[in-house]
Write a structure and sequence with these properties.
The chain has 214 residues and is α/β, with parallel strands linked by helices. Helix content is 53%, strand content 9%. It has 10 helices and 6 strands; from the N terminus they run E-H-E-H-E-H-E-H-E-H-E-H-H-H-H-H. Helix 6 crosses helix 10 and helix 8 packs across helix 9. It is globular. Pfam families: GerE, Response_reg. It comes from Streptomyces goshikiensis.
Amino acid sequence: MVVDDHPMWRDAVARDLAAAGFDVVATAGDGPEAVRRAGAAAPHVLVLDLNLPGMPGVQVCKELVGANPALRVLVLSASGEHADVLEAVKSGATGYLLKSAGAQELIDAVRRTAAGDPVFTPGLAGLVLGEYRRLATDPAPAAPDEPKAPQLTDRETEVLRLVAKGLSYKQIAERLVISHRTVQNHVQNTLGKLQLHNRVELVRYAIERGLDDA
């Protein structure tokens, strides 16, 4: 599903994605319309602009990911401001691409987003991980009655460690000599156990526990 308030841009993106073999199930031009149509169309991937009338893109993202944690959101924005990128990720976006990207770059980004990989315009991934590292150095104190962390299997921990290092599912599968589908299953199981919504949150969790340095 493609959400953008500029009709010509929205139609061009939808047309490029459809030509590349994607099934574009819906489009929308403002925030409330995006929430309504996404609820009915149930897209697997949402290509979302941040600057929307009626409701900002980050709120659209937060509502839709909250209702459907399996939804993958690729923000496609003209803004490369650090605050916008971090706010989008914290609202549940799994990737962030600038509108200066070419058509093939967008198609590749949507394909990778659909596969569960976090996709960022070069330079922005480092920003996001840097912010998570900063947060990890001063984590919020645990509540006294906070339950113990769920136990992950050795293989789930191994996959999580490689996710934290920035490897794609394909690279993890090759490294561990297992199938791409098995890697996805391990990640989904880990997300469920940790009550996290997406792979970006999973990377933060791993960094907070030092798994990216292991």
